[in-house]
Amino acid sequence: KKAVVFISGGGSNMLSLATAAAEPDFPAEIIAVISDKAEAGGLAKAAALGIRTSTFVRQDFSSKEAHEAAILAELDRLQPDVICLAGYMRMLSAAFIHRHEGKILNIHPSLLPLFPGLHTHQRAIDAGMKIAGCTVHFVTEAMDDGPIIAQAAVPILAGDTPETLASRVLTVEHQIYPLALRLVAEGTVEMKNGCAVSHAPS
Ligand code: GRF
């Protein structure tokens, strides 16, 4: 299966996906990395691995629609089976999501449905949570709300700051995103009628 990864920043999740996908038995290949930021550190990391990269800077386009149309045209050329949003800090329009519904995955740094949106680690600490974590889910129109594919939890420790917690969560993000991509690429999990449906391993 062909996967395209969307990034906006350092691309550590993209790197963990690319590393996992390089294994011979992995059911997906990362065929391209797309960024909305020319300065995204992940672009150099992808290029160093020989992965095709393309950048679509929002300011270069007259509207959100034009920006998305350019990205959609690139996706039509690439024909991916799976699109992995990985630290991609831009909302996709409903039209974009409908075009690729059931094929778009995202990783969010909280145990959804808790703490959708931003500043998830600060909010978990402020709420007195004893665990935190991350979620890989299918992307739907609502933000951080689609059917859940995989989750991982970590402890929140006394004295944790958003930074120390973010670092602990990022470690398990790098473990569960490759797992989630494997499940979707091999067809074990798929999105059906708005739900994540698991098929018993064949
Ligand atoms: C991190 O906060 C991660 O939790 C979230 O996106 C941010 C950047 O990730 N998924 P990455 O290093 O660019 O993959």
TrEMBL record:
GO CC terms, sorted: cytosol
Designated name of the protein: Phosphoribosylglycinamide formyltransferase
Gene Ontology BP annotations: 'de novo' IMP biosynthetic process
PROSITE patterns for the chain: GART (PS00373)
Keywords: Purine biosynthesis, Transferase
Chain positions recorded as (6R)-10-formyltetrahydrofolate binding sites: 64, 106
Role, per record: Catalyzes the transfer of a formyl group from 10-formyltetrahydrofolate to 5-phospho-ribosyl-glycinamide (GAR), producing 5-phospho-ribosyl-N-formylglycinamide (FGAR) and tetrahydrofolate.
Pfam families attached to this UniProt entry: Formyl_trans_N (PF00551)
Signal peptide: none
Catalytic site: 108 (proton donor)
Enzyme class: transferase
Binding-site list for N(1)-(5-phospho-beta-D-ribosyl)glycinamide: 11-13
HAMAP family: PurN (MF_01930)
InterPro entries with a match to the protein in the record: Formyl_transf_N, Formyl_transf_N_sf, GART, GART_AS
GO molecular function list: phosphoribosylglycinamide formyltransferase activity
Organism: Sinorhizobium alkalisoli
Coiled-coil region: none
EC number of this enzyme: 2.1.2.2
Domain Formyl transferase N-terminal: 1-181
Site note Raises pKa of active site His, residues: 144
